[in-house]
């Protein structure tokens, strides 16, 4: 049965398009070891016995075992004398029962298994003065991790004490509390000043082992340096937003956001604590919150309190009222504990050190969250100031560096807050947020050079951030300063055959041009044509055609019917109709455009050559390669006769002629043309030029059409690797080569076909807009591969998906939609469901004859497919009738040597019919 596997893709490597190029085809996370007495607090040195204990603090310390040597944090040279009955020597005091004082364990704690294991391993390692620092962004869950670990893990440390260490006063108070807890019966201690009690606690810590201090929210390592240096016999677990600077003897554990599953567990656990809830949109809400624990807890508390609000409804509230929602939790949530306030503490400190740093953070808010190149900030200020700003943001965990790539990342919620203005907030005033947006686009524009090749490289690097700026600016007033950026970006994307990525930029510039210059201005009309072409390349024909029609009407009115730009618009509109399945209409329109071009511009005019080339392509789409070949040949002859630097058009003409021969079933004629062209283009443009790689791909397709699958697969593999290296792994051309490689594997019976087709489909869905023809092609191709591999049920489901998508996007009469119906029916027939398949195949044949004409190759193939289904059903007479009619049409239209003609002849021979 002639299952149709060759489906036209949306790429443009072979064939002809509006720029006179042709389209490729496709089928289709250090402490002491635990011991028996590890839980005891032991006296490390007896100390001096005397009738009066002097407690003194010199204010200085020396380094021990690689510890910290810095000035002390308490009153220097303080000497206080106390009677023995009030204060026993610290070394003689054993820890009383119940000395542990820890923060409450979190009610809802998820994940962090690796980090907990790291704390276990590090804090149970033999040694002295082991310091473990858990650092990360505010709200990342550092304190929760420390509290959970101390409460649930068998660390064997006592006493275990929690000290709020966000300031020197906090550290001093925590130590003073320890001193009074060591001798709870001594009421005289309460009369002592805090600095004396803190020094006593320090002496106790220095003469005892087995204890654990958790120093929470350290803002400056100097605040705890004296403590760590004076008390080397225990363990310190520190939480801090600071990633640096910490002493070399310190072990750092960076805490990141939760994983998606853990994030969902946390949100649903808190939300449903009081009973079942509608959790629609919960996963999306977790993603929107960037899986940040504090944000998840705040939002979950809000949802738990507001029982009629679903996660999806909260998303709508967040989108419509971000400033209000970032400040709201439940009725018991402290205002200073919300995500809108927690980072202001850090930003206050950063601003006091370097105001440029918070300016930079507001700029970063408008970009994509990852892979932001630091070179982008070169024009922001002088290098020392920029370096200081970046360093502070890194040190306070507001951004994450990647030294290997020279980029930084920002949590998406930090970005969202940075884009949300709030009156009264010193870091998010409306004026400051607007300045950040304007500076963000100015830095992007300054980073794109005028030289085209260099600009293309910069655009590829910055495109995610340009796209993010556009998306984040939706609904805001346009910035005239952005027009130049978007115009240069769009031009670069079009040069790189990434027209579908140019759509947002072109829309922005077109809107600005219409507002400033009016709808009839020649630049407005040119941008309308460019946007229509981009829509066509993106597979959005329903937007492309009306935009072409509007541009054509405008050019007729402004420039006149015979103006070259008007004629070009007519040619492009015809190409859009062809892409929509209207090959016959396109042929008629292109014939008229060709005749007018001959009259107006002569046989060698660029408009004439474009019209003739695209007419040839339309004939090919209409199933008449015999009419396409002479037109392509004439274009080539005239291009070769023309003098001038337009090498691209001459190379394209030769490529298109080879493509026509391949489409006509003559790969034997296409292969030498492609081979010769590939050799020349490598010498002229280099082996890595995108057009060189396009010809290499097309040569592989010709070998595949000739049945040389081993050679074809090798060429596809090499071209796919080269395109990935040169263009990137997600470039449409790279994915096209990988897609066709999967089909070559499939035809050769290579078991790698299904896995590769799956990967291509996943990649296309991740980089292309929904409904793009390439995505639908990949669904169809994966179905074909699954069918060949014997996965019939999966194949049927995929064919059904392809049919549904193509019907919705392209309409029921599109050639691609008809192919999807045909392939689904074939899958049913091969699965034994002939009663379902036969009427569908008959309808597909009738529709193809009606839409495409009897002589179109798809119609001929459809008649042969119907014959094959009748043969499977045992209807020999009907099978022969359809096979013979299809064979006769194939011989007449396609010739004896065409692959389809040969297939039909073979089927008839197998049924005993001699030809």
How would you portray this structure in words?
There is one protein chain. Helices cover 59% and strands 6% of the residues. By secondary structure, the chain is mainly alpha-helical. Among the domains are: 53-254, Rossmann fold (3-Layer(aba) Sandwich), CATH 3.40.50.300; 260-333; 339-437, Orthogonal Bundle (Arc Repressor Mutant, subunit A), CATH 1.10.10; 448-560, Serine Threonine Protein Phosphatase 5, Tetratricopeptide repeat; 832-915, Serine Threonine Protein Phosphatase 5, Tetratricopeptide repeat, CATH 1.25.40.10. Strand 11 and strand 12 (407-409) form a beta hairpin. 50% of the residues are buried. Mean pLDDT is 83; it is low at 1-80 and 330-337.
Task: Give me some keywords for this one.
915 residues, mainly alpha, Rossmann fold, Arc Repressor Mutant, subunit A, five-stranded parallel β-sheet, 37 helices, 12 strands, elongated
Q: Can you identify the CATH superfamily of the domain at 53-254?
A: P-loop containing nucleotide triphosphate hydrolases
Net shape = elongated
Please report the first level of CATH classification, the CATH class of the domain at 53-254: Alpha Beta
Widest beta sheet: strand line-up: 6-7-8-5-9
Query: Count of helical segments?
Result: 37
Give the strand tally: 12
User: Which radius of gyration do the C-alpha atoms yield?
Assistant: 36 Å
| Portion in strands | 5-15%
CATH second-level architecture of the domain at 53-254: 3-Layer(aba) Sandwich
Determine the structural class based on helices, strands and strand pairing: mainly alpha
Low-confidence spans: 1-80, 330-337
Mean pLDDT: 83
């Amino acid at each position: 049965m002639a299952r149709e596997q060759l489906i036209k893709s949306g790429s443009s490597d072979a064939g002809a398009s509006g720029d006179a190029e042709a389209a490729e085809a496709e089928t289709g996370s250090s402490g002491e070891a635990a011991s028996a007495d590890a839980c005891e607090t032991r006296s490390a040195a007896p100390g001096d016995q005397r009738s009066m204990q002097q407690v003194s603090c010199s204010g200085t310390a020396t380094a021990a075992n690689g510890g910290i040597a810095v000035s002390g944090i308490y009153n220097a040279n303080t000497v206080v004398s106390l009677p023995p009955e009030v204060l026993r020597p610290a070394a003689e005091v054993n820890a009383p029962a119940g000395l542990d004082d820890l923060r409450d364990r979190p009610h809802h704690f998820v994940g962090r298994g690796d980090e907990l294991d790291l704390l276990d391993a590090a804090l149970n390692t033999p040694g002295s003065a082991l310091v473990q620092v858990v650092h990360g962004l505010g709200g990342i869950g550092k304190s929760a991790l420390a509290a959970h670990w101390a409460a649930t893990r068998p660390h064997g440390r006592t006493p275990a004490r929690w000290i709020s260490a966000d300031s020197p006063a906090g550290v001093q108070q925590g130590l003073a509390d320890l001193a009074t807890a060591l001798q709870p019966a001594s009421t005289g201690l309460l009369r002592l000043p805090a600095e004396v009690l803190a020094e006593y606690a320090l002496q106790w810590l220095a003469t005892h082992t087995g204890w654990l201090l958790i120093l929470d929210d350290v803002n400056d390592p100097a605040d705890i340096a004296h403590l760590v240096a004076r008390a080397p016999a225990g363990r310190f677990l520190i939480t801090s937003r600071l990633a640096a600077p910490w002493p070399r003897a310190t072990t750092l554990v960076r805490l990141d956001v939760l994983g998606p599953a853990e994030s969902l567990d946390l949100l649903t656990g808190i939300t449903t604590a009081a009973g079942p809830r509608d959790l629609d949109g919960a996963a999306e809400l977790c993603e929107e919150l960037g899986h940040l624990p504090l944000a998840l807890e705040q939002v979950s508390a809000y949802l738990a309190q507001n029982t009629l609000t679903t996660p999806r409804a909260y998303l709508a509230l967040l989108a419509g009222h971000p400033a209000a929602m970032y400040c709201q939790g439940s009725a018991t949530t402290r205002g200073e504990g919300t995500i809108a306030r927690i980072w202001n503490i850090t930003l206050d400190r950063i601003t006091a050190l370097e105001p440029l740093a918070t300016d930079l953070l507001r700029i970063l808010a408008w970009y994509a969250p990852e892979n932001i190149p630091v070179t982008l900030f070169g024009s922001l200020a002088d290098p020392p100031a920029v370096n200081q700003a970046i360093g502070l943001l890194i040190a306070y965990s507001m951004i994450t560096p990647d030294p290997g790539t020279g980029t930084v990342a920002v949590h998406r919620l930090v970005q969202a807050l940075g884009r949300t203005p709030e009156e009264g907030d010193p870091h998010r005033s409306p004026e400051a947020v607007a300045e950040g947006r304007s500076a963000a686009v100015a830095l992007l524009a300054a980073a794109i050079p005028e030289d085209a090749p260099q600009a293309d490289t910069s655009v590829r690097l910055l495109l995610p951030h340009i796209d993010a700026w556009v998306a984040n600016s939706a609904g805001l007033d346009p910035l005239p300063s952005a027009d130049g950026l978007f115009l240069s970006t769009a031009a670069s994307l079009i040069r790189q055959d990434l027209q579908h990525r140019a759509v947002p930029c072109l829309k922005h510039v077109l809107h600005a041009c219409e507002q400033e210059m009016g709808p009839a201005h020649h630049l407005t009309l040119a941008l309308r044509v460019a946007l229509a072409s981009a829509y066509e390349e993106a597979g959005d024909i329903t937007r492309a055609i009306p935009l072409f029609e509007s541009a054509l009407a405008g050019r007729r009115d402004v420039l006149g019917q015979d103006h070259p730009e008007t004629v070009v618009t007519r040619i492009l509109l015809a190409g859009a109709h062809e892409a929509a399945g209207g090959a016959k209409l396109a042929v008629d329109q292109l014939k008229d455009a060709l005749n007018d071009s001959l009259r107006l511009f002569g046989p060698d005019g660029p408009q004439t050559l474009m019209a003739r080339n695209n007419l040839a392509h339309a004939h090919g789409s209409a199933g008449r390669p015999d009419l396409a070949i002479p037109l392509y040949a004439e274009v080539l002859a005239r291009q070769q006769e023309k003098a001038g630097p337009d090498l691209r058009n001459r190379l394209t003409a030769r490529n298109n002629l080879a493509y026509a021969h391949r489409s006509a079933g003559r790969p034997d004629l296409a292969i030498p043309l492609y081979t010769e062209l590939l050799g020349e283009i490598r010498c002229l443009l280099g082996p890595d030029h995108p057009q060189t790689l396009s010809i290499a791909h097309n040569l592989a397709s010709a070998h595949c059409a000739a049945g040389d699958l081993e050679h074809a697969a090798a060429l596809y593999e090499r071209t796919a690797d080269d395109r990935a290296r040169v263009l990137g792994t997600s470039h449409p051309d790279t994915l096209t080569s990988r897609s066709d490689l999967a089909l070559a594997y499939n035809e050769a019976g290579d078991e790698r076909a299904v896995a590769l087709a799956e990967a291509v489909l996943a990649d296309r869905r991740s980089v292309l807009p929904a409904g793009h023809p390439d995505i639908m092609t990949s669904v169809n191709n994966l179905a074909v591969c699954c069918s060949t591999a014997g996965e019939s049920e999966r194949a049927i489901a995929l064919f059904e998906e392809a049919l549904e998508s193509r019907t919705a996007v392209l309409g029921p009469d599109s050639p691609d939609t008809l192919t999807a119906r045909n392939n689904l029916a074939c899958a049913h027939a091969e699965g034994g469901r002939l009663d379902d398949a036969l009427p569908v195949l008959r309808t597909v044949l009738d529709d193809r004859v009606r839409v495409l004409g009897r002589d179109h190759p798809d119609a001929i193939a459809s008649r042969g497919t119907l014959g094959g289904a009748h043969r499977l059903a045992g209807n020999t007479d009907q099978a022969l009738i359809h096979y013979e009619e299809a064979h006769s049409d194939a011989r007449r239209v396609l010739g004896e040597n065409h692959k389809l003609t040969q297939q039909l002849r073979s089927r008839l021979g197998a049924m005993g019919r001699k030809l």
